[in-house]
Amino acid sequence: MCFADHDPGQPVMCQCCGKRPANQKHHRWPQRAWVRKLYAREIDDPRNIQFVCAACHVGHHAGSKLERWDEIRFCKELGIEPRSKGGQEQWQRMKSK
Ligand SMILES: [Zn+2]
Ligand SMILES: [Zn+2]
Ligand SMILES: [Zn+2]
After folding, report:
1. Which pLDDT value is given to residue 97?
2. 54-82 CB burial, b ≥16 within 10 A, e <16
């Protein structure tokens, strides 16, 4: 799950429905424990975050505009190289094509 902390100072509207104030952060690439370990500084990068309301965030409802990235997509968007073993192998395979 990627429920983030409530941020009362956040004035933006939900980037999914656009109707309610956003008070949660959706991580495009979910912040699992190993991800946090490998990408401690990058995981909360604004490029990986969508601000959403709680109603939209619950269960990532069907048809929502919440994006789901994998490690490769995440690294491409941030201009970094994968740090997990699997990610590095996939990166090499993509390069050698
Ligand atoms: Zn919403
Ligand atoms: Zn989420
Ligand atoms: Zn929504």
Report:
1. 72
2. eebbeebeeebebeebebeebbeeeeeeb
